[in-house]
Write a structure and sequence with these properties.
By secondary structure, the protein is an alpha+beta fold. It is 35% helix and 28% strand. The chain has five helices and nine strands, in the order βααββββαββααββ. Strand 2 and strand 3 form a beta hairpin.
Length: 152
Amino acid sequence: MNTLTINQDSRVKEKFQTYPEAIKARLNHLRRLILETAAEIEGITEIEETLKWGEPSYLVKRGSTIRIDWKAKSPDQYAMYFKCTSKLVPTFREVYGDTFQYEKNRAIVFGLKDDIPEAELKGCIALALQYHDLKGLPLLGKVYTPLGHKKY
């Protein structure tokens, strides 16, 4: 595991304080998965944690922004958002199928009672964090095998 420097905007901590307790725990779980995944990828030594569109957002060099949020208008769900014009969510659909619930080409959506398939979600996170190095590869460098997923 790499040493990961987290450059945190203080507004992120303030934003987390605005969420209901049950949501805060779930979003902190997503945050932990993002940070763990970043630390596991060779070459990623820094991650920026900031607010974009009022949502906690995670950026690394050569990656695509990942955002997480809960919205009061959909109180029973929360989501991990990706750039909608990228190949990310369409690739997740192709590689992981119905493992996740998707919102168009922009998000993976979780219900409050859902168990999160961590290995698969970390696979999605890893693709986003390395997106600019992978975007020219078929399925962003993933190939499906009956035993799981691996890079070319």
